[in-house]
Amino acid sequence: MSSQIGWPDGKRAALTITFDDGYADTFHETSNWLAERDLRATYFVISHYIGKSFENIATANWENWRLAASQGHEIASHSATHAIMAGPLSGIDPVVRGILSDPDRFSYFRQIILRLFALRKYKKPADDNFSLNDPLLEPQVSRREIQQHLPNYQVLSYSYPAGRFNLAVCKAVIAAGYISARGNQAGINIGINSFFELRNLCLGPGLELPELEPWLLRALNQGGWLIITFHLVSKNNPTQYPYHCSVSGFQQIIHRIEKLPFWVATQQAVVTHLQANTP
């Protein structure tokens, strides 16, 4: 991909900023701030929990997401209810591949250990336990709900809950009308074989700017596409949610990205560019 496809504006690599779960604090701390810097992100929302709470954390409402869409951000699907769509074995392969692809394997092992400790300490709250009868309907139902509330808007990107998927899940996402989907395999997207198995880097315990820096430089050297995923971006974290990034930490990462020759675009925009320019 790097040797055959040029990125817009002569940039050396592509980078997508994404947010999972659709938290209200994340919306308020990032949407306007990014738009003011002429940067656009992809927000993966859980349609059933919009305007409610998820993980005992308030989520943004439909008015918020209509505003974000009007600012040029992409509103995408993270399913209808965050039901896990594939079995536990589907989560092992991404970990192994992450170990093999990480430029610093010691750092990767450290991330895994820190996240396991953080998750063990975290007391996951009970949400309303609503679920669909068939988890494979999640992409279809979510897409329909989001488009009902965002008139004349096409939802084209998907993020698998917990990053877990298999062939049946991929087929369900494709059948629902999406053009790409992101899992939880760590890495840079180079020579993409399927737009429904996109790699990313998930910010959390053990992966902040110092650990992110080698990935940024590697993406530039390889001319690839790096997707960075945030969850909760807020000033405070009273529930000790493990995938939290402070506002100052988030802004520090974005300031660093701005200094590098990345084409920063939404997941949909990058996929559309690659589809149009792949030989």
Terminal CA distance: 10 Å
Structural class: alpha/beta
Q: Given the C-alpha coordinates, what overall shape results?
A: globular
Give helix % range. Answer: 25-40%
Based on DSSP secondary structure assignment, what is the total number of beta strands? Answer: 12
**How much of the sequence is in beta strands?**
15-25%
| Largest β-sheet summary | 8 strands, parallel
User: Roughly what is the average pLDDT, rounded to an integer?
Assistant: 87
Rg over CA atoms = 17 Å
Unreliably modeled segments: none
Q: What is the number of helical segments per DSSP (H or I, 4+ residues)?
A: 9
Please write the string of helix (H) and strand (E) elements. EHEEEHEHHHEHEEHEEEHEH
User: What is the subunit arrangement here?
Assistant: single chain
Structural write-up:
With 279 residues, the protein is an alpha/beta fold. The chain has 9 helices and 12 strands. The strands form 3 sheets. Strands 1, 2, 5, 6, 7, 8, 9 and 12 form an 8-stranded parallel beta sheet that branches. Strand 8, helix 7 (209-222) and strand 9 form a beta-alpha-beta unit. The protein starts with 12 loop residues before the first strand and ends with a helix.
